[in-house]
Amino acid sequence: MTFPGAARVQMVMSLPVCVDIRTALPGRELTPLLDDAFSWLRWVEDTFRPGVDGGHVARLDGGRPIEGIPELVEVTRRCEELSGETGGWFDGSEGERFDPMAYVRGWAVERLSRALAGAGAVDHRVTAGSGTRVRGSSAPGRRWRVGMRDPYDGVTTRVLFAHDAAVATAGGEQYSGDGRAWVCVVGPDLGAAGAYAGAMHAMGTARARRFARELAARLPYQSMVVGADGRATSTPGFTGHGVETRLAG
């Protein structure tokens, strides 16, 4: 099936990033939109990449003030807020070094999604690693289908249907946690969804399930927590996203 629009995939922020626009715009508009999208993501990578001598994050980590970069101030403050919300399970650091990339990847995609919609590309999906942001429709009258993959073996176990949602998964070797446990969070902002998912996975399954219920009671974020035994529990609103279960095999 042929769809209108255009798509592009590039490695940015150490992740494969796919920008898929389905709005029927002329090619003379689509190409600059995709060019600008990846220019923004490369700027984010250059600005927030940790461990670069003389870089912005390295200067901030060393206690030196940053002037003229409002995005860095915004991200730093939001990481502090999320640390407080999660009881320190998410804190925007790697060891003793400030490293906001776990939040920044989702934050950058979220800002990109808003920019695309503002430019007229109202139907799009942006995927960066285990995070996905969708808006509009994949085709006229059709919601986007977002697969939720087990981060350990890559098997799609569930499919979410949405016109407007951010979906983040945490698990696998890059996170600490108990056994093969993993977490999926759905909400309105990919940066926050990714931070909540990472925090819940680090907490361990029992604490994560309690936190997921508390989070859903006060904010529009719904979660699914999969324990090491494969048993999945979801907050009440999670199934409201039209989740379809797929069996492997």
From TrEMBL:
Which lineage?
Bacteria, Bacillati, Actinomycetota, Actinomycetes, Streptosporangiales
Q: A single Gene Ontology molecular function, please?
A: transferase activity
Alphabetized, the UniProt keywords read: FAD, Flavoprotein, Magnesium, Metal-binding, Transferase
What is the protein name stated in its UniProt record?
A: FAD:protein FMN transferase
What are its E.C. numbers? 2.7.1.180
Q: Where are the transmembrane segments?
A: none
Is Zinc found in the keyword set?
Answer: no
Q: What PANTHER family does its record include?
A: FAD:PROTEIN FMN TRANSFERASE, THIAMINE BIOSYNTHESIS LIPOPROTEIN APBE
Tell me which species this is from. Answer: Nonomuraea mangrovi
From the UniProt record, list the reaction(s) this protein catalyses: L-threonyl-[protein] + FAD = FMN-L-threonyl-[protein] + AMP + H(+)
Cofactors (names): Mg(2+)
